[in-house]
Design a protein that fits this description.
The protein has no helices and eleven strands. It is mainly beta. Strands 2, 4, 5, 6, 9, 10 and 11 form a seven-stranded mixed β-sheet that branches. It has a four-stranded antiparallel β-sheet with strand order 1-3-8-7, with no helix packed on it. The termini are far apart.
């Protein structure tokens, strides 16, 4: 059974950092063509960052220069390094595999001012 499991969320103060992880289980190729999304209370889910099978990265304008997406193929894990966090980054963060059409369960990130 294909499963994506996020971890690494938490509560930090503005300016702090967190690293989110998304581990893929069940089918190793799920780790290719992955994206991070987030959803704040009362708002629609929005794209944050993507990493395709060619290694091309993409970022929402709101996180460019602060977030970095990467993956470890040996560990079937996708990462999102988040630096210089702002209160407006507060949201539930989800990873998604376009290859396997799967979403993770989400991990909460809360940034206080």
């Amino acid at each position: 059974q294909v499963q994506l499991v996020e971890s690494g969320g938490g509560s930090v103060q503005a300016g702090g950092s967190l690293r989110l992880s998304c581990a893929a289980f069940g089918y190793r190729y799920c780790i290719y063509d992955m994206k991070w999304y987030r959803q704040a209370p009362g708002k629609e889910r929005e794209f944050v960052s993507g990493l395709d099978s060619a290694g091309t990265t993409s970022y929402a304008d709101s996180v460019k220069g602060r977030f970095t997406i990467s993956q470890d193929n040996a560990k079937n894990t996708l990462y999102l390094q988040m630096n210089s966090l702002k209160p407006e980054d507060t949201a539930m963060y989800y990873c998604k595999s376009d290859t396997c059409t799967r979403w993770g369960q989400g991990t909460q990130v809360t940034v206080s001012s």
